[in-house]
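Internal QA ticket QA-208
Title: Verify multi-chain structure generation after dependency bump
Assignee: T.L.

Test input:
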Amino acid sequence: MAYEQDVQRLEQIIAALDRRDLDLDEALRLFEEGVERLRAASSALGAAEASVRQLVEQADGSLGLADFNR
Amino acid sequence: MTPARGRAASRHPRDAATDAPDLFAPAPPTGAGTAGAAPSAAGVNATGESAQEAVAVSTLTEAARDVLEGAFAPLWVRGEVSDFKAHRNGHWYFCLRDAAAQVRCVVWSRNRQRIPAPPDDGMQVSARGQLSVYTARGDMQFVVTAMEAAGDGLWRKALELSLKRLQADGLTAPERKRPIPSFPSRIAVITSPDGAALRDIIAVVRRRWPLAELVVVPAKVQGEGAPDELIAALGRVNRWGRADTVIVGRGGGAREDLWAFNDERVARTLAACTAPTISAVGHEVDTTLCDLVADLRAPTPSAAAEAAVPVLADERDRLAGLARNLRQGLTARAVDMRARLELSHRDLRRRGEQLLESRRARLEAVAGRLHALSPLATLARGFAVARGANGEPLTSARQFSPGLTFALMLRDGRVPAKATGSPELSAPDAPVSEPTE
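Actual output:
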């Protein structure tokens, strides 16, 4: 899930920003990327209802998803 | 014991000595054992009533077999196993006995699959079977088709044997366990579509992490055919190939209800699953083979769902924390930068002042020396300097002629003057006089 990568990168960026030897240009560049990652991660957490599907095997042996109603 | 009710029981009281032919007669295939029926069946050409009418041995044993099989419906017998032998033809032979008696038993190879494991000698078992006669030897034998041991002994033994094989193949090794994905998109759930287990899993995932898609893969989880259905479901999940995590399990049940999850083939198929697996066999006490080969064992289906997904609210908090850290990180760098600039500025100023100071000192030193050399200093001590009309210094008496106008430069000013007579030369000590001498 992209969310996981976004969060991992965000953590890297924050760790990098904690380094005192970082120059200001680089710090700004990282910050901007961090804001972008944060925005993506937050929107990935948007509200949704967990969907429940059922794995069904077709006559030809192929597999697909169908609604699960029980 | 409660066998031998029915038609055979009605025969037994009869005295064999007075009714021998009937005893030797094969049991009729149907109907009550009408006494004295078909004595001729004991032998086509013999009645057994005299030496001349002696029946063949095989006629006797076959008749005995038919009578016994007719007399006893299949029944359960309990006793201790001894002399167990697994013959290489696939059949099992052993004795069942108690303190006073024993009976030979056989398990035909085709019936072995219904018995979880071969019994050990000394094991207390109940065996279901048909009493019969092994005609070739004339031995009575009990043909066993099912067996149970006290305290699940056979199941336990079967389980131990399976476990040993799984362990030998490394399928239970801790280093084989894969991590469960932290943020799964799709979770396959192999279980009964009607079970409480599925309802629990759906409820937990909806509450904690509604971003995941649950994919139900229906399978019978107990009873006849359950292992095959579980294996087929695992196969489908693998072929589908899009599950991030696989949960396989069922709700709590009696120990025997969990047996499909102790099936070695099911365990091996689970171990071979391409996605990380969580077993959720709801039984606190028993650990099943599936529990041992799964990447994670959860005590209940709800716990499995909790292990499979994070909590959305926690993740939102975490993101808020990360946002804070990000801002603080940048702020800290900016503050650093300003401090560094200020430091540089101060440094620069200090160095500038030092430079200025050193220049001033040098200037003062030069000025001091200039001052020392200046004629003004001499004038200050009370001397005067004469200067001609053009300002040239008049340093020799010879430069004065009577009436020459000149200026006298004194400490505090200038006085116009005129020579009133001829110069009176003093002793010729001055260098200026030398050229004349």
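Spot checks passed. Chain A has a mean pLDDT of 86.
Status: verified.
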